[in-house]
What we know:
The protein has helices spanning 19-34, 54-68, 75-82, 119-128, 147-160, 176-186, 189-194, 217-242, 251-263, 397-401, 408-418, 427-436, 438-442, 461-464; strands at 10-14, 44-48, 85-89, 108-112, 135-140, 166-169, 200-208, 273-279, 281-283, 286-288, 306-312, 322-328, 335-342, 362-368, 372-380, 388-396, 447-451. The protein is α/β, with parallel strands linked by helices.
Amino acid sequence: MTLRTAPDQDIVVVGATGDLAQKKLIPALYNLHTEHLIPNHGNIVGVAPMDWTREHFIDHARDSVKQFSRTGINEERFEAFAKHLQFVPLGADSDLKPLHAALTKQRRLIYLAVPPSAFTPLLEAVRAADLARGTSIVIEKPFGHDLKSARQLNRTLHSVVPEERVYRIDHYMGKETVQNLLVFRFGNSLWERVWSRDAISRVEITVAEDIGVEERGPLYEEIGAIRDIVQNHLFQVLSLVCMEPPVSFDAEALRNEKVKVLRSLHTVDPHSVVRGQYAAGTVGAEKVRAYRDEPGVSKESTTETFAAMRLHVESWRWSGVPFLLRTGKRLPVRDTRVVVSFHDAPLHLFREVGMHAMHSNRLVIRIQPNEGISLRFSAKEPGPDVRVQPVDMDFSYGDSFKTSPPEAYERLLHDALGGDHLLFIREDEVEAGWAAISKLLEEPPPICFYAAGTWGPEEAARIAAPGRWHDPDDPDADT
């Protein structure tokens, strides 16, 4: 899959002065420009409710690249990049007709880098401004608030552009280590032979963040951890872990298999879920406030910042295997990983030498940071006695390839510009994900509090029982 320069078109970023555009989109577009991967001809148009000139936007873009580009800034290259930049103020009525003057091509990609509440008004504005023809839409998660609203959003999208010009973006799908799951599973016959209930006892998927909600308090109050992470990031990783081999590496073939996994999920039982909310505590060396003390958050908030759940995939391959999903803010470290635990080996051979327990074989796929894969197995300690210890075989992206993986948004933006849907989410995937948690959203369990800097509320231990969670900072866990 060789990356090529995207076809000529304009790129429109609605919400160009926001946090997502500043930290991710503008640096990604700059990096793609330096690698000759964005269109040679076409403008990059920022749209936002700001009374800015083009010069203001160029200065903003320069600061963004300086602070957040993985490559840093090269002034000569930035000047070439800046020639493509334009800015159009967005009025209070979301009128996009003034955008026509900044466009140069019949084809365009419009990225809605805005809060979910703005999706529908802006989609209607695209249609009202006669911009739908030749337009593709990139839309950020969460895609709706529940199953009903997701279906309505899909209907609104399709009233503007057809499904083949919709790109629902989940930046986890742009991560090299997430994509590597496909190669790891289907490019190595060893793993496919043991990748089922016959060999695997359980699977854990953790998305841990050490940050709080930062300045997103009002928005997070409407979303919470289940809508923000479980329904998209965690379910996307889950589908790649569980899917059957696709018939080809075609986008539709891959997405067909992902949908089958999500449709195989038992509707999540609220009794198999623990919701948590961080109280004041210490993360690293920093004392941090409680979620309820964050700006824009209600003092009586029942929004979860942590969720842990046990669910099952009802398929021939995975019947009976528990999948433990966990996510949270203000946890001890930033870490995303998949932990695959295999069935214990029989002990009869070692009982005569005093062995009464063995460490399970465990495969850990580290998605971020310290991207890589490790396998834990048992080995004999040197010496005359039979003593067994767990040891690790470890693969690290940084050590093996001498480079860090590129930013996810760079790959996803390039693919959207080129019309490649492989790493984007189809409408039935979205609806299947919401359907799986519909009962949970209707009957959410009560909030349990946890101190910031810990691994969530104590009640989460029952989700992992009779085993335990394999925390990244646990000395017995793979690191």
